[in-house]
Design brief:
342 residues; mainly alpha; 2 domains
Length: 342
């Protein structure tokens, strides 16, 4: 049995205060968690750079490199959306007219949604994809603050992450250090798999969506494919939102063929297959967890914790399973009946 020594109480108190801080500042903790997770993934690159320059310079260079990458992707996305603003405006205005018409409103077909709920969803989509410039200006202070928290977390963990990890492990009883190290390795593997697979699935979505939108016949094939891939890159949205939106547009146009193409080829194959099969299999294979369990962790994490759950959901699943494996391995090692006799 592990006993708590008097010199361990400061560490326990610190842990409790950290948990309390997470609870109080949860509205921005998603940026802290995402920054920390990305820092863990990129730490090996920081170590390589540190061999050629001072650690703080390496941390600064890597932080600005990440900022530059995100800024470039954001500008490219804004440029694409601006160049296709007429397409987006036509799509949302057509859907809005369709919802406002009592003859074509989904409630006329028995769809169990109120008109208010559907209009609110449409307004949310309009503010994100059409009036994005106005939305960015409205929420600019919050966006800048969250960006500051994210990149500050990234820089601090690049620069002081290893030192912090060493100090924390130094206060852990020797009997637990091997378990902490194994859980730490499992965490790194899981986070690497999450980010790698997220990018891979977004790229896969783009190329799989191209033939779907070619068959749809509305033109602007590359834009629609990029739109689906962009939504897929955002965990709490997913490419399904793009196919549902464009499917509603096809329905508003009275294009039954387009609705069927978007539902069976777009929603079921391009959107759901990567989410249900590709993502859980690739992440599960990396961390040796069954894809069904990994699927529950991914979806459950996003549904319960939002953006932070994209990382925390599968990570918690992996840590629980890894802890169970360590427990069973220790039990087998301590059971004399399981020892091999010559």
């Amino acid at each position: 049995m592990i006993r708590i020594r008097a010199d361990q109480f400061p560490s326990i108190l610190l842990l409790l205060l950290i948990i309390l801080a997470f609870a109080i500042f949860w509205s921005i903790m998603d940026m802290v968690l995402l920054g920390a997770s990305l820092a863990i993934v990129l730490i090996p690159l920081h170590h390589r750079l540190s061999t050629h320059m001072r650690p703080w310079i390496s941390a600064l260079v890597l932080t600005f490199a990440v900022l530059g990458f995100f800024s470039a992707m954001g500008l490219i996305t804004l440029a694409i959306f601006s160049a296709n603003s007429s397409v987006l405006n036509q799509m949302f205005s057509t859907i809005g007219n369709w919802l406002n018409d009592p003859m074509t409103n989904p409630m006329a077909y028995g769809v169990p949604f109120s008109k208010t709920s559907l209009m609110n969803l449409l307004q949310d989509g309009t503010s994100v994809f059409v009036d994005y410039q106005k939305t960015l200006i409205t929420y600019l202070p919050l966006i800048l603050f969250k960006m500051f928290v994210f990149f500050a977390t990234l820089f601090i963990l690049f620069f002081k992450g290893e030192e912090l990890r060493t100090k924390i492990i130094g206060h852990v009883p020797a009997s637990l250090k091997k378990y902490i190290n194994r859980l730490s390795d499992a965490t790194s593997d899981t986070l690497y798999a999450i980010y790698y697979v997220q990018i891979a699935v977004a790229v896969l979505t783009f190329f799989m969506a191209i033939p779907v939108f070619y068959l749809l016949g509305y033109g602007d094939i590359i834009f629609y494919a990029y739109f689906a891939a962009f939504c897929e890159l955002i965990p709490i949205i997913g490419s399904s939102a793009a196919f549902i939106l464009i499917g509603a547009y096809a329905q508003a146009l009275g294009d039954t063929r387009g609705v069927l193409i978007l539902f069976f080829l777009g929603y079921l194959i391009v959107s759901l297959v990567p989410e249900i099969y590709v993502r859980p299999v690739l992440i599960g294979r990396r961390v040796k967890v069954h894809p069904v369990i990994m699927f529950i962790g991914i979806v459950g994490g996003i549904l319960t914790m939002g953006l932070a759950g994209f990382v925390l959901g599968p990570l918690i699943i992996v840590l629980v399973i890894t802890s169970y494996r360590m427990y069973t391995e220790e039990k087998k090692g301590c059971n004399p009946s399981l020892t091999v006799k010559d």
